[in-house]
Amino acid sequence: xxxxxxxxxxxxxxxxxxxxxxxxxxxxxxxxxxxxxxxxxxxxxxxxxxxxxxxxxxxxxxxxxxxxxxxxxxxxxxxxxxxxxxxxxxxxxxxxxxxxxxxxxxxxxxxxxxxxxxxxxxxxxxxxxxxxxxxxxxxxxxxxxxxxxxxxxxxxxxxxxxxxxxxxxxxxxxxxxxxxxxxxxxxxxxxxxxxxxxxxxxxxxxxxxxxxxxxxxxxxxxxxxxxxxxxxxxxxxxxxxxxxxxxxxxxxxxxxxxxxxxxxxxxxxxxxxxxxxxxxxxxxxxxxxxxxxxxxxxxxxxxxxxxxxxxxxxxxxxxxxxxxxxxxxxxxxxxxxxxxxxxxxxxxxxxxxxxxxxxxxxxxxxxxxxxxxxxxxxxxxxxxxxxxxxxxxxxxxxxxxxxxxxxxxxxxxxxxxxxxxxxxxxxxxxxxxxxxxxxx
Length: 440
Prior knowledge:
The chain is mainly alpha-helical. The chain has helices spanning 2-40, 44-50, 58-87, 91-97, 101-128, 132-136, 139-151, 157-177, 186-206, 208-211, 216-243, 248-257, 261-285, 287-294, 297-312, 322-339, 342-353, 356-364, 372-383, 391-403, 428-437, and strands at 370-371, 407-414, 420-426.
C-alpha cells in the first residue's frame, strides 16, 4: 500500500515539476528567439535596407520590414514545426485538427497573436530594443482583465495587486526611456510593445478552448503556419501597396535568399520550441502556473539580447540601464502574483518542514481513530518524498506512541488483502500531551 501511494504521489509531483521546468525553458527560449531575430534583421540585405542612405521611407523601415521579419520568422518556425511533426508521425493530425472547431479557434487566435502581435513586437524590438520584452510581458495582466470583462472571471485582490505591479513596472521602464534625450523611435517602439501585449493577452484569453483539446505540437504548428501564411499572403502585400514605392516581390525574394536567413532559421527554431513548451508546460502544471513561468521572458528578453547582440556579436546597440533590469524583475514578480497565490505555496512549504513523527501524532488528535493506511493516505501528498515515509516507519512511530501512552488501540481486522489492520486513537490525556508539545 505504502509503495503504491508513494509511487502515485511521486508520479504526480514529477509530472508537475517537469511542466514547471518546461514552462521556464519556454521563457528562456523566447529570449533567444528575440535576440536572434534582432541579429537577423541587422545583417546582410537588412542592414542595407535600414541604412538611411538607401533611401527607404520611414513607413517601409518601420512597418513593412517589421512585418516581413515577423513573417520570415513565423514561416521558419512553421517549417520546424512541420518537420518535427513529420518525423514524429503527427503531421497527419495537423491536417485533421485544423478543420475542426478547436483547430479553427487556434487559427483565429493565431491571426491576433501572429500578424498583429508579432509584427507589433518586432516594431517594438527594432525601435525600442530590449525594453520591448518587459513591456510586452504585460500580456498576462491584459488577459486577466479581458477575462474579467468578457467571461466574468473573478479578479481577486491578489490578481489586482499583480496587475498593478506589472503596470507600475512597465511605467517605470517606459518613463526611464522617455526622459532626457529620447532615442529616435523609442516612443513608437514602446507603443507597439504595448500593442503586442494587448494582442497576446487577447490570444491567451480566448485560445484555451483549442489548446485544451489539441496536442501541444499540433497546436503550435497550427498557430505558426497560420501566422506565417497570413503575414506573407495578406499583411505584406497590403503594407507593400500602402508604401507605394517598393517592389514587394523583390523584397520578399531577397529576404528569403539572403545570408541572414541562418539567423532567422535559429530564431524560428527558438520560437517554435518556446511556444510549444509554453502550451506543453501549461497543460502539465496548470495554465496559471505555466503562464507565470513563461512570463519570465520579461527578464530573459533583455538578458539574451545583451548576451547575443552585445556580447557575442558585439553590435553597437542599445543596452538596459540598471533601473530597467530592476523593472524587468519586478514584472516577473507581478506576473507570478497574478497567476498563483504565493501564500498557498508558503503554507505548503511550512507544512512539509514539520517532522514526520510530529505530523503522525497530530493527525490522531484530529480524527476519532485511524489505521496505518489511513495515516499514510492523509500524509502522503506532503511526505511521499521523505525516505522515512514507508509503512514500517509509520508503524514504528505509532507503536512507540502507544507504548508511551499517547495512543491506544481501538480495534483490528483483516483488510481485502488478508493483512492485519489495526486502528488507533489518541487518548484524552495523550491528545493533551501531543497538543501541548507539538503546536500547529
